[in-house]
Amino acid sequence: MDVYLLWHIRHARNLDGSPTVHRDESGDLVINEEDGDDVKLIGVYSTVELAMAAIDRSRGLEGFRDEPDCFIADPYTLDQDHWTDGFISVPHDES
């Protein structure tokens, strides 16, 4: 069974004043947390229609209305491992 994870991305502003890239050439939403993009999980919905309704409700809210086209509803299969490899921790450079 699939559910839909609804995310909103608030893109970091470029310090040099250059335009923020929200979507790539193919129209896919650009997400780069390392550059400071803020990714929020809005909710998990049983249908894509319910996720779309949540987008409609959220678009007018403070913060979200600044980037009304930066929502994405990702299908996600329940009862399945989604992270099947290990991971490593990379120390943060404090300098």
Give a written overview of the molecule.
The protein contains one helix and three strands, in the order E-E-H-E. With 95 residues, the chain is of the alpha+beta class. The protein has one domain. A three-stranded antiparallel beta sheet has the order 2-1-3, with helices on one face. The longest helix is centred in the middle third of the chain and has 11 residues. The chain starts with a strand and ends in an 18-residue tail after the last strand. The model has no long low-confidence stretch (mean pLDDT 91).
Condensed summary:
The protein has 95 residues and is α+β, with helices and mostly antiparallel strands. The protein has one helix spanning 48-58; strands spanning 2-10, 38-45, 71-77.
Q: Tally the helices: what do you get?
A: 1
| N-to-C order of helices and strands | EEHE
Count of distinct strands: 3
Q: Tell me the fraction of residues in β-strands, as a range.
A: 25-35%
Radius of gyration: 16 Å
Helix content: 10-25%
Class from secondary-structure proportions: alpha+beta
Major sheet: 3 strands, antiparallel
Which runs of at least 5 residues are low in confidence (pLDDT < 50)?
Answer: none
Quaternary organization: single chain
What is the 3D shape?
Answer: flat
Distance between the termini: 46 Å
Instruction: Work out the count of structural domains.
Output: 1
| Overall average pLDDT | 91
Query: Strand order, biggest sheet?
Result: 2-1-3
